[in-house]
Amino acid sequence: MVRRAIGTRRRCQLNAPPVSDVTAALAERVRHAHVTGTALRITGAGHWLDAGRPCRADASLPLAEHTGIVEYEPGDLTMTVRAGTPLDALRAVARGEGQWLPLDPFGHLGGTIGATIATASSGPLSAAFGTPRDHVLGCEFITGTGNVVRAGGRVVKNVAGFDLVRLVTGAWGTLGVLTEVSIRLRALPEIDRTLALETTAGEARRWLRASAYTPLAAEMISARLATDMGIGSRDTLLLRLGGNRALVHAAAESASALAGSRDVDTTVWDTLRTREPADAAVVRLSTSSSQVAALWDRVASIVERAGGHAHATLQRGIVRCMLPVQSDDAEEHARLRGIVGALLTLGSSVVERLPSSLWAKMVPPAASDALSIGVRRAFDPGHVLNPGILGELA
Questions:
Q1: Among residues 26, 191, 319, 356, which one has the fewest Cβ atoms lying within 10 Å of its Cβ?
Q2: Could you give the CA distance from residue 195 to residue 205 in angstroms, rounded to a whole number?
Q3: φ, ψ of residue 237 in degrees (nearest 5)
């Protein structure tokens, strides 16, 4: 049962300044920065400013006021929205039409759609619905020279031209300032149910592989994190099931073979998203889904001993580690170097957050190869947009 009117083509618009006026003002600021060599730090709601490498900027380019839904076509399950619009605002509007945007990046619930796309951030729902690149149909952005570019479109079947949309998604604002995005929505499931099961990663992985049911999300939670969230005291699998009533009931019955399961409120996923400690060091490791249980066992023990938290998206082979930073002195930094260094040897890795002084010592630049430098030069020849955030060479 789909909770929306089939064939509905009603357009929804929220009051906001015309896109052309607001975008033109932002473009003029970027053009001025290019001419004067003023480095800009692009900011949305400002919740993720300590993610990524320290940014060498002379001024900020805020988009927090650049909000509003430009166009909403419920019948097409598409929405065009300004980059500074908070994700929770989009969630509320779409829910009114029986729809949702299944993007659940970790961090503050008031994070913006622009920051989510710019950083390509995703969460447990990515296993079933894909990453931000799978949700974005088109975008508008301002290059480092102040030119306004539109890429993709507002409809699902738009396929023309070079895929600039995927190029700027995950570029951390280094290729352009995202001002508007068109996104694909989904119909809300009739039933959305979450189970907590105290089990091992190996048992959970075997059930997921053998099961006839595909969950909306399956996230392994370390014992310390489970305790902190109030859902258990051992390693715990959070299993999110969605669909019609009969399907969800059958999937829950199948999952109960893992361990004594219990229902928890679906708000537990928001609790997980926001559980990351302030000023934490965060490392994301990845491996094949067949090896994720072994990776989890090694990583979880290191993180737990360090007083941190870990969780894993099992179907994608991703383990995310959160380590508390207790002080800003040399002794604490030495401790972190040892822990993070041990983690980085265990699998392919992405460092999300670190004390600013440790980036250059521990993590090689993410965009210093010739191809990346060439692409950056084409879009931002003056190197004024978020310089240093990927560690690229000036």
A1: 356
A2: 16
A3: -95, 120
Task: Pull the structure tokens for residue 249.
Answer: 């009931």
CA–CA separation, 138 and 155 (whole Å) = 8
The pair phi, psi for residue 12, each rounded to 5°, is -115, 130
DSSP 376-389: HHHH-TT--BSTTT
Phi/psi for 281 (5° steps) reads -90, 130
Centre a 10 Å sphere on the Cβ of residue 341 and count the other Cβ atoms it contains.
10
How far apart are the two ends of the chain, measured CA to CA in Å? 54
Q: Which residues contact 296 (CB under 8 A, 6 or more apart)?
A: 201, 220, 310, 312, 319
| Domains of the chain, earliest start first | 19-187 (3.30.465.10), 191-272 (3.30.70.2190), 276-362 (3.30.70.100)
Q: What residues does 177 pair with on adjacent strands?
A: 142
Q: Smallest Cα–Cα separation from 99: which of 59, 69, 127, 63?
A: 69
CB 238 within 8 A of CB 191: no
| Three-state DSSP state, 79 | strand
- What confidence tens digit (pLDDT) does each residue in 133-162 have? 999 999 999 999 999 999 887 655 444 555
Report which secondary-structure segment, H or E, holds 117. helix 113-119
pLDDT tens for 330-381 read 999 999 999 999 999 998 999 999 988 888 888 888 877 888 889 999 999 9
Closest to 10 measured CA to CA, from 76, 85, 87, 92: 76
Give the helix/strand (H/E) hosting 269: helix 268-273
Q: Which helix (H) or strand (E) holds 281?
A: strand 281-286
Q: What are the backbone dihedrals phi and psi of residue 349, each rounded to the nearest 5 degrees, phi first?
A: -135, 150
Q: Is 236 left (phi over 0), alpha (psi -120 to 50) or beta?
A: beta
DSSP-based three-state secondary structure for 160: coil
Pair type for strands 59-62 and 40-43: parallel
CB of 255 within 8 A of CB of 197? yes
CB 45 within 8 A of CB 160: no
Name the DSSP class of 112: B
